Amino acid sequence: MYSTAFLDLPALQAAAGEVPLPGSKSISNRVLLLAALSSGTTTVHDLLASDDTRVMLDALRQIGCVVDESGGSTVHITGLGGSTPLSPAKLFLGNAGTAMRPLTAALALLGGEFELSGVPRMHERPIGDLVDALRQLGCQIDYLGNDGYPPLRIAHAQGVPALALAAPIRVRGDVSSQFLTALLMALPLAAVTQPIVIEVVGELISKPYIAITLQLLARFGIVVEHQNWQRFTIAAGSRYQSPGDIHVEADASSASYFIALGAIVTGATGQKDAKSGIKIQGVGLDSIQGDIRFVEAARAMGAVVTGGPNWLQIDRGAWPLQAIDLDCNHIPDAAMTLAVMALYANGTTTLRNIASWRVKETDRIAAMATELRKLGATVEEGADFIRVTPPERVEDWKPASIHTYDDHRVAMCFSLAAFNPAALPVRIEDPKCVAKTFPDYFEALFSVAQVAAPQIPVICIDGPTASGKGTVAAAVAQRLGYGFLDSGAMYRITALAALQAGLAIDADHEARIATLAQTLPVRFEGSKVLLGSDDVTDAIRTEEAGMNASRVSALPAVRTALVQLQHSFRRLPGLVADGRDMGTVIFPDAPLKVFLTASAACRAERRYKQLISKGFSASIEDLRADLEARDARDSSRSVAPLKPAQDALVLDNSDLTIEQAVEKVLTWWQERQPFAASAQR
């Protein structure tokens, strides 16, 4: 998952391949709470690992459930089975409406003292209609801040009071379907001797989400009948019982981004046997989730979608896409993706009946309108609709830094704008917000996105020994979310791999070592260097490893193979490479080349402190002499001599800290971005 302040997406050209999806957030948190209310142990398979499920699991532990997460995406929940939860307890629920609303209702009917709070945005999301319904029953719930909004206190220290169950419980349905879901999941706890009726006041929005709730209730032994989605009856004698095992379907809302991707892009061209289209694994046309009906909207815009029980295949059909005018009440979350698809349509797209967008993680109507305009679209917004007209001409598209409002769906939607016809990059601010439902979203996108190698940005940081180039380059890569290449380590790793394979490092074995070098499974993770699954960080830093690296570098065929291997590190979203010839030989087309240097005296002092800290004895004078001699050798060698590229920016960091050098490189990089001005918010 990307935890950077922003993530720059280069202009993306095509996409093809398979995408496995994470589990559904809506199903995951419902299943967790139903398991917690049940008798017995429930094994939940394919559970979504996200911020929302994390706060739910933490809350269930606090109230006394036994939670075993030892099985990866499989979690075992031993429920309360009708017993009183542990209290008092203060439950922090982040920005998870699928945890806040149902837990409020369930705990109000189980008894105990609880405080439920979340992030500041959660305290702006309405809950008053649910609280009013629970107060009708006789539950004692207090607001700890603004009336109608969390945080809340449930004060049932003496147990649940006598509940008023004779009359129907009335709840509004036109603000959030989560209020009704919360009541449907909690009230079976009270339906011991008599049926309980819930009446919806006004139009029920997001009916498909209620359908999910009803289907899952049935899996846990609760029968609910409804009349035209306005009157719901929970049978008398209801009792939660674990189904034993339950599988979480992949998230249909998350599928919308890749359905849209398949609709707007072509597969790789000019490649023999190249795949086309996007195949989604984990959810199919028979999904119980209402957002699967996004497929209908995508087809209406021109997508070609086929599928089976657990997969979908999407290919581009009509192009440009067809503008639509659609009531989106049945797909409120997935409909956000349609607003970005509208950028690629031949006319004005209108999405209606989306008032619920305004009370989600952010005011999504306002957010989508603001960010779409940045890209060059013409947007009209109303209380419950948004109308999007794409840029009229290719040259009307604008590079943009997309503010994401701590809203996972805004971030994922706008990543699709990187496929724009103007070939402009797009910046996604705060990319880590996707952790709410799809922590590895960007990794999944990059696994299928395709772009010509020269379009993938590279920052080269070259310089003499002990200039700090490796440390600076690794820090720049971390700040940008880019890959990292320590070119100096490549020769050391090749030498190590050759010796492990029983090959002497000499001309007689040159061809075999070159073949080995072509496919070395090298990865750089933070300060670690990995060869396959082995951590070789320390093994390649010895004096002997350095000498072996010099012998390897003298073999022309091996050098050629390592050039190819280094080129393979140029992957999305970008690369920071450090060495002596990154900007002059390996990546001469890199948009930013930095030559990092420092005086020999300064470098000798740094190396001295480094060695002393590791317990080695050293002489500053000897170190300085050695560095000066090495500089002379590196600068005069016939192959790839050490020198700045003609267009490199020279940075003397003799008097700079590492952080200051990193900031200088980042400043130079930012100045080269087309949306630099819009990023200064």
From TrEMBL:
Instruction: Fetch the PROSITE patterns from UniProt.
Output: EPSP_SYNTHASE_1, EPSP_SYNTHASE_2
Q: Does the keyword Nucleotide-binding apply?
A: yes
Provide the residue positions that the database annotates as binding ATP.
463-471
Q: Which GO terms describe its molecular function?
A: 3-phosphoshikimate 1-carboxyvinyltransferase activity; kinase activity
Cite the annotated pathway: Metabolic intermediate biosynthesis; chorismate biosynthesis; chorismate from D-erythrose 4-phosphate and phosphoenolpyruvate: step 6/7
What Pfam families has UniProt attached to this entry? Cytidylate_kin, EPSP_synthase
Q: According to the UniProt record, what class of enzyme is this? A: transferase
Main location group: cytoplasm
Q: Show the CDD domains listed in the entry.
A: CMPK (cd02020), EPSP_synthase (cd01556)
**UniProt-annotated binding residues for 3-phosphoshikimate:** 25-26, 30, 176-178, 206, 333, 360
Q: Where is the Cytidylate kinase domain?
A: 459-668
Domain Enolpyruvate transferase intervals? 15-445
For this protein, the Enzyme Commission number is 2.5.1.19, 2.7.4.25
Recorded catalytic activity of this chain's protein: CMP + ATP = CDP + ADP; dCMP + ATP = dCDP + ADP; 3-phosphoshikimate + phosphoenolpyruvate = 5-O-(1-carboxyvinyl)-3-phosphoshikimate + phosphate
- Keywords noted in UniProt: Amino-acid biosynthesis, Aromatic amino acid biosynthesis, ATP-binding, Cytoplasm, Kinase, Nucleotide-binding, Transferase
Q: Where does phosphoenolpyruvate bind?
A: 25, 97, 125, 178, 364, 409, 436
Q: Where in the cell is it found?
A: Cytoplasm
Alphabetical list of InterPro entries matching this protein:
Cytidylate_kin (IPR003136), Cytidylate_kinase_dom (IPR011994), Enolpyruvate_Tfrase_dom (IPR001986), Enolpyruvate_Tfrase_sf (IPR036968), EPSP_synthase (IPR006264), EPSP_synthase_CS (IPR023193), P-loop_NTPase (IPR027417), RNA3'P_cycl/enolpyr_Trfase_a/b (IPR013792)
Provide the active-site residues from the annotation. Answer: 333
Similarity comment: family membership: Belongs to the cytidylate kinase family. Type 1 subfamily.
Q: What is the purpose of this protein?
A: Catalyzes the transfer of the enolpyruvyl moiety of phosphoenolpyruvate (PEP) to the 5-hydroxyl of shikimate-3-phosphate (S3P) to produce enolpyruvyl shikimate-3-phosphate and inorganic phosphate.
Please give the subunit comment from the record. Monomer.
Protein name as it appears in the record:
Multifunctional fusion protein
Starting at the broadest rank, the lineage of the source organism is: Bacteria, Pseudomonadati, Pseudomonadota, Betaproteobacteria, Burkholderiales
